[in-house]
Amino acid sequence: MRRTVRLDFFKSIRQGLPAVAERTEQAVILGVRQILSDRGGLASTLKACGFTAAELKQAAETTAAKARSYEQSRRQEIPALSSSESG
Questions:
Q1: Are 56 and 44 spatial neighbours (Cβ–Cβ below 8 Å)?
Q2: Closest to 29 in 3D by CA, of 86, 73, 87
Q3: Whether 81 contacts 74, CB under 8 Å
Q4: CB 82 within 8 Å of CB 71
Q5: pLDDT by residue (tens digit) across 22-31?
Q6: Among 11, 49, 78, 84, which one is most buried in terms of CB atoms within 10 A?
Q7: Do 35 and 42 touch, CB atoms closer than 8 A?
Q8: For residues 14 and 26, what is the distance between their CA atoms, to the nearest angstrom?
Q9: How far apart are CA 44 and CA 86, in angstroms?
Q10: What is the mean pLDDT of the chain?
Q11: CA–CA separation, 75 vs 62, rounded Å?
Q12: Please, what is the end-to-end C-alpha distance for the chain in angstroms?
């Protein structure tokens, strides 16, 4: 359901302003990738929010799995972004 909501959100933006929507979508994706790749920053934030050591470990594992899944789905959903990053 979350994927559907995300896709519906971007689809609704694209209908109104296609060029702006694509750039907005790419910016959001890059931001998410930066957040997920900063494990130290994420761990510090979670620790400051009261996460225990066990919860931090679980969060790190879950985040890594979600990041991998997100990257795979991103490549399938947005081939233009993937090709623009490589060149």
A1: no
A2: 73
A3: yes
A4: no
A5: 788 888 888 8
A6: 78
A7: yes
A8: 12
A9: 31
A10: 75
A11: 20
A12: 33
